[in-house]
Amino acid sequence: MADERGRRPGNPQTRREILEAAMESFKAHGYGGTTIRGVARAAGVDPALVMHFFGSKDGLFSAAINTSLPVALLVGAFDGDEAHIGERLVTKYLEVWEDPAHGPDLSAVLHAAAATPAAAELLKELTSRELLGPVTRRLSGDHAEIRALLTASQLLGLAMIRYMLKVDPLASMSAGQVVAVVAPTVQRYLTGPLSLDEIAGTGRPG
To answer: What is the pTM of this model?
Structure first.
């Protein structure tokens, strides 16, 4: 039941609605343009309730991206035989970006991280905890952490060029074409030879 000011009390549904309002604000206004007061107004609650649930704008952003980003779907691509991880991962990654329920959220988060150091730090913490950690534990080869980071760099660059900057011809290629050309590189990062030990021994690549 709403209070005398027309604002709803706190409950799990209210918390979800605050997170939805926050994500819409991050998409529309970026991290810097989003305020606790504005999110509260959009969700129809008192700003104090937003603070009660999330503590700060940083806490709100962290919770919003943790709820909105389909990390489990990407981690799930590592289940199965290692010989086809690259193909599964790139396919799932493109599906997520092209899903209208997830693509705009991903774009908003990357825009926020690129524009605001605080948002970048929060995204780094989330990525390390929820994505890179689980991926590293699923890889059986050496240098698992470096392999996961190299893969992340490839996929983030792909998203930036294809979905955010929309640079052709990559932006207009079919998903199947992108998988065909990108998956082998991702596969090599994840399971192929990296020669890191040889490079470390000489101090420079041969």
So the answer is: 0.77
